């Protein structure tokens, strides 16, 4: 049996940019890019479609990449969690269910 194929990152839909990003005290994110949850957690704000407000939609990349939150720095592109999130996104879109990760 061959190794599982890796997704092509160049064609990624950046679905990780739709995940909730809980900020830590050491994250130095401008306040206008943050939001508070009902539970009082500071998170990256999202636009009306659910995308992180820091994403540069024209190029599908992070506009604050050099100062992005620690959790984003630890996210392994094409790693197991990345592939799981992308598969869930694909499955939901095939079934016509809008993506709403909490």
Which regions are unreliable across 5 or more consecutive residues at pLDDT < 50?
Answer: none
Give the integer mean of the pLDDT values: 79
The major β-sheet equals: 2 strands, antiparallel
* Number of helical segments with 4 or more residues: 2
The helix content, as a percent range, equals: 10-25%
The proportion of strand residues reads 5-15%
Distance separating the two termini: 36 Å
Estimate nothing, just give the exact number of structural domains: 1
Structure class: alpha+beta
The tally of beta strands, per DSSP, is 4
Rg value: 15 Å
Question: Can you walk me through this structure?
Answer:
The chain is of the alpha+beta class and 102 residues long. It has one domain. The chain is 21% helix and 10% strand. Strands 1-2 form a two-stranded antiparallel ribbon. The protein has a two-stranded antiparallel sheet with strand order 3-4. The N and C termini lie far apart (36 Å). The model has no long low-confidence stretch (mean pLDDT 79).
Descriptors:
single chain, alpha+beta, two-stranded antiparallel sheet, two-stranded antiparallel ribbon
């Amino acid at each position: 049996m061959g190794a599982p194929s890796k997704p092509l990152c160049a064609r990624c839909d950046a679905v990780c940019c739709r995940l909730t990003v809980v900020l830590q005290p050491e994250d130095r994110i401008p306040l206008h890019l943050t939001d508070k949850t009902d539970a009082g957690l500071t998170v990256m704000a999202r636009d009306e479609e659910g995308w992180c407000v820091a994403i540069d939609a024209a190029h599908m990349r992070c506009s604050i990449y050099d100062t992005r939150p620690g959790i984003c720095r630890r996210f392994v592109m094409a790693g197991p969690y990345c592939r799981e999130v992308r598969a869930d996104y694909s499955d939901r879109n095939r079934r016509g269910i809008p993506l709403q990760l909490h």
